[in-house]
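Review this:
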Amino acid sequence: MQGKEPSAMVRTRFCERFGVEHPIVQGGMQWVGRAELVSAVANAGGLGFITALTQPTPEDLAKEIARCREMTDKPFGVNLTILPSINPPPYDAYRDVIIDSGVPVAETAGSSPAAHMPAFRAGGVKVLHKCTSVRHAVKAQELGVDGISIDGFECAGHPGEDDIPGLVLIPAAARRITVPLIASGGFADARGLVAALALGADGINMGTRFLATAEAPVHHNVKRRLVEATERDTDLIFRPLRNTARVARNAVSGQVVSLLQEGGAFEDVRELVAGLRGRKVFETGDLDRGIWSAGMVQGLIHDIPTVAELIDRMVTEAHDIITGRLTGVLAEEK
């Protein structure tokens, strides 16, 4: 059940606040954030999140939490992404499962977590809120969240509409945020971890990089594609609708971009972007079956390690960079 002990440690206040060994987070990923991956991250000392809405019902979420507990005795969390829709899922019921199951951390994303904060507070659940702008991060901090995950333009999924990359967004957020800050979007290795710390963050969140690991519950074709792809092989869909999403470039994403650029409406692409089609990509390995999320960071992915190998490598190399190369560039006073 336990992961391999790392040969070095990099600890920040995020580790202290959220009770983990390393400042590395595996955020919620639709169809991917399941017990196999989450428990592997927890056993390796990171903080993994089960994706609540991957589970068809709140009852299924309770079962997945129990299944994850059979695989690890270390802390893990549950992601609850709250999005406006005509027929919304039962968010309150999913939230109550998180609380009743004794999960210590919830990652909220999408809309403001305001409606759920009193219940999470009463249940003793810490909240890590993911957002894409400094203004939304400040508002979430004012609501009393325990941590902020700030998502730069490089990220997979929804980067917001401001188009601010992490190199600017992270220090801009660090200047305004006093709770632990996690940098998200564009991270895959030790260099990114060290850079995030230098920019003022207390750790990093990785999605695409964890997708290309042995434990990720997706077809090997998806993982191999991430290794083969470059940083240029993503598409931004829904831009004309101001609901931008970054996805892996394939036949379907190209068709969606073209239809919307030509003046099409969401109804013209609804069937192409259906979530179940994207799920089939992960299940069957047919990379053109639907759209699926991938960040620009895929250009930095060159292998498919186990989660334990990846985290140990990142922490060890980050320690070496901080104590070696960076120390070496300091000039002694004459």
Q: What stands out?
A: The first helix runs from residue 13 to 18. The beta strands are 24-26, 47-51, 77-82, 105-110, 126-131, 147-151, 181-184, 203-206, 234-237, 245-248. The CA atoms of residues 177 and 291 lie 34 Å apart.
